[in-house]
Design goal:
single chain, cytoplasm, Nucleotidyltransferase, domain 5, disordered C terminus, RNA binding, RNA-DNA hybrid ribonuclease activity, 2 domains, RNaseH_sf, 200 residues
């Protein structure tokens, strides 16, 4: 069962990102502050939840959280500042927009760039341990999936409607056949010459 809070002295927000490992599209992040007593039996790390349940959870989180925000950093900025910094920036943007000020942050993963003077704890696999991080992972994932689905009609050969920009075999084959789109991350290894080695 997920723990509700890492600590109880300060107002706590959980943060997570989605899309760090994709070949195309932005990285999304969410920050969520949950109330005492928050619970949903299906809430878990977004990767462990079915797509249908993720959208059910999104509605529940948005209705029952004290507050939440979702932010993104696009592929061009990812190429400029690198994906790790872009992930941290997306989290910072989400935290900044929260209607209630967070006093303590719990971050999924083992690294984070400090946001202002707010103390934080990095938690490896935090989305499998803390409800607010799991909620942030659900929001970041579903908002990013929606974004990639909306791009699909523009470039249907890449099947972003199903792979969401991740480096699946079908996505990599489309890159090999048709080249990179304006939404691909140039700093990632997704060019044809590199793919030939990966796909053997």
């Amino acid at each position: 069962m997920l723990k509700l809070f890492y600590q109880t002295e300060l107002v706590e927000a959980g943060c997570d990102e989605a899309g760090r490992g994709c070949l195309a599209g932005p990285v999304f992040a969410a920050a969520v502050i949950l109330p005492e007593g928050f619970y949903h039996e299906k809430l878990n790390d977004s990767k462990q939840v079915t797509e249908e349940d993720r959208y059910e959870l999104r509605g529940y989180i948005e209705e029952n959280a004290i507050c939440y925000q979702v932010a993104m950093v696009d592929h061009e900025e990812i190429d400029r500042i690198n994906i790790l910094n872009a992930s941290f920036k997306a989290m910072h943007l989400a935290i900044e927009k929260l209607k209630k000020k967070a006093q303590f942050l719990i971050i999924d993963g083992n690294r984070f760039t400090k946001y202002k003077r707010i103390p934080h704890a990095c938690i490896i696999q935090g989305d499998a341990h803390y409800a607010s991080i799991a909620a942030a992972s659900i929001l970041a994932k579903t908002y990013r999936d929606d974004f990639m689905r909306n791009l699909h009609p523009e470039f249907p050969a890449y099947k972003w409607i199903t792979n969401k920009g991740y480096g699946t075999k079908e996505h990599r084959k489309a890159i090999e056949a048709f080249g990179l789109t304006p939404y691909h991350r140039r700093s990632f290894q997704c060019t044809s010459s590199q793919l030939e080695l990966d796909m053997e």
